[in-house]
């Protein structure tokens, strides 16, 4: 056995799912005391590899090695028995239990009578050792996303894990919490733990990683060590081609006002959630609404799309007042709406791609699925939607492919819709998919459509929008062309620092 | 479960092979028969003999299969009613009561039109009256559900008892419209012969218990299947069942969808009750209260996995178990009814439980000791 036998290694691992090879002879290893990042687009196979490493899936071919010895894992519990733990993107905690109760939950040999104080002390000891600030008595349901993640990590450490697989750990975290997570990761590495960091966020992994392995289409496309990591090079490995991250701007003059929102007020349960919102969107322009989540973005989108009825004020689409005419009436006036919640709202998750394409069409008494099917086949081809076929339920698609189905329906198929309302169109998508979505929006603008882009991703708004509005507590508090000089003012407006 | 150093575990299937849809029910029934055999042996009966009797009395003999088809006819209706609501996640447990109301509504129409319509119009009128009465019986739960979100499970269930007492009142408690005025014996007033259909003879000179309403029930299943697969209404209900938020986004009317599905469900059960008037009973017959066709319809729908065409088959299967099971009591080696019920229960439980093997597969894994 060599001196530097990997803490955990996958050798030539292959895993097939119906219609797709998720991992194709993948080799990967993580050493003691290092952070090895697994980078790749959604659907690249990194979650599958992580699931194999922790014992959730069994590989069809290849083997796992732990400290130089071969390892067969039959379940995540077996993985844990071997010191391997996965911290899932979506937390698996009991909301009504305390932190300590959640942490000891997975332990098998609990005494019949539990001493809360003793358990709390044990949990606190583990948390303190790795610099994880955590109150063992806090109720998990009352914690923030970052704190819950810390509970998951402490739980893994408490159960004796020394290889931790963190699956998209920053997906749900606010920026300051990401920073805290990185402190924790460094503390764990310093204590000799091995960390596998699974992510598709290129920018943030460069700092934290000792090594970065990039996956694409189920294969490893490259591996770089700290210091060699260059964002553009990694991006190329991820998407397999040069990508453009530059700013897009309208190249033509804007036309008539197609969407007009005036003096919009919305009250819910006696609370005013939108206050005197006014703006126009013209043909051939993208108006971006920036803002921190929860400041009324969804309400604006739903009022404009006719799903919510405003308490006061009105919406005009292509010259037709649409207030009170409902989602269908607003759509007939020429508006199409891409909601931020893809699978829960924009698409019916258990229904096929074909069935989802007819969702916002006038269907008559008999649903015409033949046309929808040929449309589906065309979009799958044109937009490079990765799917076994047009009858696949949309919940089985990756985020980016689901979004493409949604955009195909609302942008491409609804070519008569001159007004688009698009909410967080790239949230959770990988670099390649983001690029594809931005391309579609840019094309729609060039066709002379009026686009309202509502996004919590300021960079996206700045990249795409010709005009930037900032929404804060249901009010528009800033309006500017969004050029470089405006960025500081936009940031201040988003934080509520407006006179 | 660990056996001989190997762990047996269930793993979710990513795709379900088509053949499993047939194999799993068949294996389930075989296992159920084995379990039934244990009980039969324990009570001193020959299992194979009893099964041969059951098969003969329930399915293969002329009177066996015709009795079964006769019982299956209203059962198809209550099965369709349950399937129609359940696939929308609306749990209408009130098919039993809606069936009774359908019988009352059908009898009312049958007595009221009293030969003033030709048969081709009279029969549909009776069926529609039954449908209307069934729908009416679920109208209040439907309104409460769509408007206030009240659980339809509780409200429809409780109305079953009201319906049961209503039938008893009409026949035993009052001397009203539905009671036979010609005799002091409490029984229902028979409807005009012009609104009744004779039993089928199947090209023999024998009298069976199967009525032409069987074909109406089967047609209804085909029509509903088409409605759900092809029509916009079927599409909207499928979207709503999958994701109410998506339906709202698309501008669908949730209140209309929820209430209409419950009303249609009640109407289908009501048609089943009216068929009882057209066919075997010809009147409001408290005998229907003993059969439990409404609750059985829920089981039939679940066995069919809410597929309307499969409801026809599962209704016949279920009816045959009933008919054959009760015939066992009267055979040369009488089997107590309790054992017949055990057998029915085992078949149904295993057929439903077999679902788990359709969705998951068994894997045998060597246990690794770390």
Could you give the topology of this structure?
The complex is a heterodimer of chains A (499) and B (370).
Chain A (H helix, E strand, L loop, with lengths): L7 E10 L2 E11 L4 E6 L5 H8 L7 E6 L2 E3 L4 H6 L2 E4 L11 H6 L11 H14 L15 H14 L4 E5 L7 H16 L3 E6 L2 H7 L2 E6 L2 E7 L5 H9 L17 E12 L2 E12 L3 E5 L6 H8 L7 E6 L2 E2 L4 H7 L2 E4 L3 H5 L6 H5 L11 H14 L16 H15 L5 E5 L7 H16 L3 E5 L3 H7 L2 E6 L2 E6 L6 H8 L5
Parallel strand pairs in A: 3-8, 3-9, 6-7, 7-8, 13-18, 13-19, 16-17, 17-18
Antiparallel strand pairs in A: 1-2, 1-4, 4-5, 9-10, 11-12, 11-14, 14-15, 19-20
Helix pairs in contact in A: 4-5, 14-15
Chain B lengths: L1 E2 L2 E7 L7 H23 L4 H14 L1 H25 L8 H19 L5 H30 L3 H22 L39 H18 L1 H11 L1 H6 L4 H25 L14 H11 L4 H21 L8 H17 L1 H5 E7 L4
Antiparallel strand pairs in B: 1-2, 2-3
Helix pairs in contact in B: 1-2, 1-13, 2-3, 2-12, 3-7, 3-10, 3-11, 3-12, 4-5, 4-6, 4-10, 4-11, 5-6, 5-10, 7-8, 7-12, 8-10, 11-12, 12-13
Q: What is the compact description of this entry?
A:
The longest helix of chain A is centred in the middle third of the chain and has 16 residues, at 175-190.
What would you note in describing this structure?
The complex is a heterodimer of chains A (499) and B (370). Chain A has 499 residues and is α/β, with parallel strands linked by helices. Chain A folds into two domains: 8-239, P-loop containing nucleotide triphosphate hydrolases (Rossmann fold, 3-Layer(aba) Sandwich); 257-494, 3-Layer(aba) Sandwich (Rossmann fold). Helix content of chain A is 33%, strand content 25%. Chain A is built from 17 helices and 20 strands. In chain A, a hairpin with a 2-residue loop joins strand 4 and strand 5 (69-71). Chain A starts with 7 loop residues before the first strand and ends in a 5-residue tail after the last helix. The model of chain A has no long low-confidence stretch (mean pLDDT 86). By secondary structure, chain B is mostly helical. Chain B has a domain at 73-320: ABC transporter involved in vitamin B12 uptake, BtuC, CATH 1.10.3470. Helices cover 67% and strands 4% of the residues of chain B. Chain B has helices spanning 20-42, 47-60, 62-86, 95-113, 119-148, 152-173, 213-230, 232-242, 244-249, 254-278, 293-303, 308-328, 337-353, 355-359, and strands at 2-3, 6-12, 360-366. At the A-B interface, helix 10 and helix 11 of A face helix 8 and helix 9 of B.
């Amino acid at each position: 056995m060599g001196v530097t036998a990997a803490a955990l290694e996958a050798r030539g691992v292959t895993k097939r799912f119906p219609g797709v090879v998720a991992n194709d002879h993948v080799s990967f290893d993580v050493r003691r005391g290092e952070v090895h990042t697994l980078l790749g687009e959604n659907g690249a196979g990194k979650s599958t590899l992580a699931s194999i490493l922790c014992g959730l899936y069994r590989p069809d071919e290849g083997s796992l090695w732990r400290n130089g010895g071969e390892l067969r894992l039959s379940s995540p519990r077996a993985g844990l028995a071997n010191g391997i733990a996965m911290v899932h993107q979506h937390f698996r905690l009991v909301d009504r239990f305390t932190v300590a109760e959640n942490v000891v939950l997975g332990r098998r040999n609990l005494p019949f009578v539990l001493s809360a104080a003793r358990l709390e002390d044990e949990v606190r000891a583990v948390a303190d050792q790795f610099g994880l600030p955590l109150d063992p008595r806090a109720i998990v349901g009352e914690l923030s996303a970052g704190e819950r993640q810390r509970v998951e990590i402490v739980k893994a450490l408490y159960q004796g894990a020394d290889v931790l697989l963190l699956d998209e750990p920053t997906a749900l975290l606010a920026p300051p919490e990401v920073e805290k997570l990185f402190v924790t990761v460094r503390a764990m590495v310093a204590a000799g733990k091995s960390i596998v960091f699974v992510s598709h966020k290129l920018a943030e992994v460069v700092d934290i990683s000792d090594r970065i392995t990039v996956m694409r289409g189920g294969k490893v496309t490259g591996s770089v060590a700290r210091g060699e990591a260059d964002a553009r090079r990694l991006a190329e490995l991820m998407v397999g081609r040069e990508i453009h991250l530059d700013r897009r701007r309208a190249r033509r003059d804007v036309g008539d006002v197609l969407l007009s929102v005036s003096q919009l007020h919305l009250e819910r349960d006696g609370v005013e959630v939108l206050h005197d919102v006014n703006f126009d969107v013209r043909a051939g322009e993208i108006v971006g609404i920036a803002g921190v989540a929860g400041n009324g973005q969804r309400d604006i989108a739903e009022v404009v799309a006719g799903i919510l009825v405003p308490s006061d004020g009105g919406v005009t689409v292509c010259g037709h007042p649409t207030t009170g005419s409902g989602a269908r009436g607003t759509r007939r006036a020429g508006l199409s709406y891409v909601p931020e919640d893809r699978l829960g709202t924009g698409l019916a998750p258990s229904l096929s791609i074909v069935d989802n394409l007819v969702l916002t069409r006038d269907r008559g008494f008999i649903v015409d699925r033949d046309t929808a099917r040929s449309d589906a086949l065309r979009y799958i081809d044109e937009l490079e939607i990765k799917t076994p076929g047009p009858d696949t339920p949309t919940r089985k698609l990756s985020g980016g492919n689901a979004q493409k189905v949604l955009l195909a329906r609302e942008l491409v198929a609804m070519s008569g819709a001159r007004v688009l309302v698009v909410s967080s169109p790239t949230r959770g998508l990988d670099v390649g998919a983001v690029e594809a979505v931005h391309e579609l929006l840019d094309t729609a603008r060039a066709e002379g459509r009026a686009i309202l882009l509502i996004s919590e991703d300021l960079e996206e708004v700045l990249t795409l929008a010709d005009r930037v509005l900032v929404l804060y507590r249901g009010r528009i508090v800033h309006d500017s062309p969004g050029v470089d000089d405006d960025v500081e003012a936009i940031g201040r407006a988003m934080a509520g620092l407006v006179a | 479960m660990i056996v001989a150093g190997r762990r047996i575990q269930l793993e979710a299937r990513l795709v379900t092979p088509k053949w499993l849809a047939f194999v799993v029910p068949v294996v389930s029934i075989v296992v159920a028969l084995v379990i039934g055999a244990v009980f039969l042996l324990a009570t001193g009966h020959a299992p194979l003999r009893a099964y041969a009797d059951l098969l003969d009395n329930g399915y293969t003999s002329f009177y066996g299969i015709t009795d079964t088809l006769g019982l299956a006819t209203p059962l198809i209706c209550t099965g369709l009613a349950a399937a129609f609501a359940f696939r929308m996640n609306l749990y209408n447990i009130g098919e039993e009561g809606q069936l009774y109301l359908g019988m009352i509504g059908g009898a009312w129409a049958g007595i009221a039109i009293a030969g003033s319509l030709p048969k081709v119009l009279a029969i549909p009128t009776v069926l529609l009256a039954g449908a209307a009465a069934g729908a009416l019986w679920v109208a209040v739960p439907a309104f409460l559900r769509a408007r206030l979100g009240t659980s339809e499970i509780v409200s429809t269930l409780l109305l079953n008892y009201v319906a049961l007492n209503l039938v008893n009142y009409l026949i035993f408690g009052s001397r009203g419209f539905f009671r036979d005025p010609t005799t002091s014996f409490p029984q229902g007033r028979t409807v005009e012969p012009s609104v009744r259909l004779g039993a089928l003879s199947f090209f023999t000179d024998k009298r069976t218990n199967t009525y032409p309403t069987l074909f109406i029930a089967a047609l209804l299943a085909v029509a509903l299947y088409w409605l759900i697969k092809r029509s916009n209404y079927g599409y909207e209900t499928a979207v709503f069942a999958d994701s109410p938020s998506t339906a709202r986004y698309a501008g669908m009317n949730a209140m209309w969808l929820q209430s209409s599905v419950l009303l249609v469900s009640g109407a289908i059960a009501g048609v089943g009750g009216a068929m009882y008037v057209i066919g075997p009973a010809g009147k409001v017959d408290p005998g229907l209260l003993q059969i439990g066709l409404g609750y059985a319809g829920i089981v039939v729908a679940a066995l069919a996995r809410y597929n309307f065409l499969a409801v026809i088959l599962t209704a016949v299967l279920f009816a045959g178990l009933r008919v054959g099971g009760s015939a066992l009591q009267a055979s040369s080696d009488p089997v107590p009814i309790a054992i017949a019920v055990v057998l029915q229960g085992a078949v149904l439980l295993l057929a439903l439980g077999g679902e788990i093997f359709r969705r998951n597969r068994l894997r045998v894994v060597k246990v690794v000791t770390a």
